[in-house]
Amino acid sequence: MSFVDHLELLRWHIIRAAASIVVFGLVAFFSKDFIFHDIILAPSRPDFWSYRMWCKLGELVNAPEICIDKINFTLQSREMSSQFTTHMSVSFTIGLILAFPYAFWELWRFIKPGLYPRERKNSRGAVFFVSVLFIIGLLFGYYGAAPLSINFLASYQVDASIANEFDLNSYISTLTTMVFSCALMFELPMVIYFLAKAGLISSEFLSVFRRHAIVVILIISAVVTPPDVLSMSLFAIPLYLLYEASIIIAKTVRKRDIDRLNKNLTRNEA
């Protein structure tokens, strides 16, 4: 295929991916009550699932202070067009999330024909694992990291006379930042897998720089989450576990490559 033909093929893959985002975005747009009341605004109410689980955990370990039974803030919209533009942007975001597996599959369909047979074999299941890790990261961010961040920021006051009345866009920005940060964070094993397959990184390299990685993880956690120990820990611990899992993945990839090379050498000698 010529370069122009490749561009034409890429254009149609992008069009189909964008169309899926638009379709899911329209579904989200016309499901306004469910999207906002049951999903977007759910972490702003004390009956949210995560808060109820914290209360049950507090009863179980006899630590009632960890129960979150009150969210000390109110939401407001201070611009005339704010609610409409927020509705549009949230619908697009929801469409992007729901269409992510299909959009990534379209991109992968364009990339895959350019790979060597061995590279295709090594990348088998890439769409599935990338999508699964993305969804797990979203769920972790939505039910784990985001509620704790929202509760901390909502309950923090420099003086009792100052009421927490947050703008709707500020609340949604905090929620989406936490959720998408976790979604991208959970893609680390797949990134390490492909880098290891390409020979650009090894388990030895990751092990040597483990201490540096811990420092980077703590810095990222401090930037992304509120400055309280619980929120930072909830974000940093899974990220560190993913780093350790990445070391195991890189080691496994290296071992398989060595075994394959030894088999080829044995076959050639025979």
From TrEMBL:
Sorted alphabetically, the keyword list is:
Cell membrane, Membrane, Protein transport, Translocation, Transmembrane, Transmembrane helix, Transport
Q: Where does the UniProt annotation locate this protein?
A: Cell membrane; Membrane
InterPro entries, alphabetized: TatC (IPR002033)
Top-level taxon in the UniProt lineage:
Bacteria
Assembly and partners? Forms a complex with TatA.
Known NCBIfam families for this protein? tatC
What function is annotated for this protein? Answer: Part of the twin-arginine translocation (Tat) system that transports large folded proteins containing a characteristic twin-arginine motif in their signal peptide across membranes.
| Protein name (Swiss-Prot/TrEMBL) | Sec-independent protein translocase protein TatC
Question: What organism does this protein naturally occur in?
Answer: Adhaeribacter terrigena
Its organism's taxonomic lineage begins at: Bacteria, Pseudomonadati, Bacteroidota, Cytophagia, Cytophagales
